[in-house]
Amino acid sequence: MRVKIRSTALVKGFRQSAPYVNAHRDKTAVIMLGGEAMADENFQNIVNDIALLNSLGMKLVLVFGARPQINCALNQYGLETPYHKGIRITDSHALEVVKQAAGQVQLDITARLSMGLNNTPMAGAQINVISGNFVIAQPLGVDEGIDYCHSGKIRRIDIDGIQRQLDQNAIVLMGPVASSVTGECFNLTSEEVATQVAIRLRADKLIGFCSEQGVLNQDSEVISELLPTQAQPLLEAREAAGDTGSGTSRFLRGAIAACRAGVTRSHLISYKKDGALIQELFSIEGIGTQIVMERAEKVRQAQIDDIGGILDLIRPLEQQGILVRRSREQLEQEIPRFTIIERDGLVIGCAALYPFSDARTGEMACVAIHPDYRDGDRGVMLLNHLKQRAKAKGLETIFVLTTHSLHWFLEQGFLLSDVSALPNTRQELYNYQRRSKVLTLAL
């Protein structure tokens, strides 16, 4: 009797994926799915894999684009929409077509995620797909004399609302059309929606699709991993060559911003390769390109060699009148009072603590964060570090004087006060022309 030998390759692969199943459970991923992917014959396989991720306990936000579908619909109506700086100018006629095309794509994705036939990979999946007004938009306005009309940008995201749906194991589906507080609709870019949702949701991953296996080098080989500082020149080179709308360029823009704002990993894979999403997330070698956060940032006391970096950071804010101007000589004398955030040798944040020991209080001053890194919690990091320094000096409160950041300090627990609450020596130096708000925080 001949015995049939069955392959154990599936068992081996399943065992190798087990650590990743555990690692990804309860983690949040924002998936950026362009219209090109939905037009590809492999799209149903991508949907099946998204359903699998949901069944394995991942919390998923699916952000879809519809650029090719919109272009096709516009051609049918004989409409043309020029672009300015890579963004479609959406007039009132084009907006109706955009809403129609985006609505059809949304319904198609929802229908595919609702499949449950016994002979399909989604048998018994029972996925809840939730769409809603999670994004509030505002118009882009006029740039260089060009009116963007109904093309818009994000004004507000209901992160709490999204999180409630994710906690119920639903897939949140979001598209490129959002309403405003005035009841109008605006056409957004899917990469902006995906990136900002990932940042504000503090997602663990941002996942994107392109026609290639990932970002390719000059030999057409996949670059498996990039830091944002390495990805930036690649993006700039693509844009200089006129490539602003491809899936790779759109993803790189979003991934660089997301990583700098604290999203640990961003993955770019091919929408043409069956199983690319599963292989990227559940295998050791992966298959696409990862954009990963740069080396850990350091919060430390400033040294004399940091003066140049601090000056580069605060000079633009001084020129705008946000910070009081400090000379290099003054900084040299006061450098022991400064705390900085350092990232790869670059000073990306700073703040100073000026103690008034007799009054058992101290002033938090010269707070600045580099523009590229303001989406994270770096201001909170500086505040916590200065609070520890203040406590070590025996101080009981700290205070700030601010003209532009009132709400941020209130969110951190500061209370509005007045000039009379300042130490006498600090009251004498108060500049009534600046009319800075005085806030205090008990330690």
How does this model look, in words?
The chain has 15 helices and 23 strands. Helix 4 (67-76) packs across helix 5 (92-113), helix 7 (190-200) packs parallel to helix 9 (247-260) and helix 8 packs antiparallel against helix 9 (247-260). The model has no long low-confidence stretch (mean pLDDT 88). It is an alpha/beta fold. The strands form six sheets. It has an eight-stranded mixed sheet, sandwiched between helices. Strands 17-18-19-20-21-23-22 form a seven-stranded mixed sheet. It has a two-stranded antiparallel sheet with strand order 3-4.
DSSP, total strands: 23
Mean pLDDT score: 88
| Portion of residues within helices | 25-40%
**Number of continuous helical runs:** 15
The biggest beta sheet reads: 8 strands, mixed
Broad shape: globular
What fraction strand? 15-25%
- Overall structural class, as computed from helix and strand content, comes to alpha/beta
Radius of gyration (CA) equals 26 Å
Strand order of the largest sheet: 5-10-2-1-13-15-16-14
Low-confidence stretches: none
> End-to-end distance, in Å?
82 Å
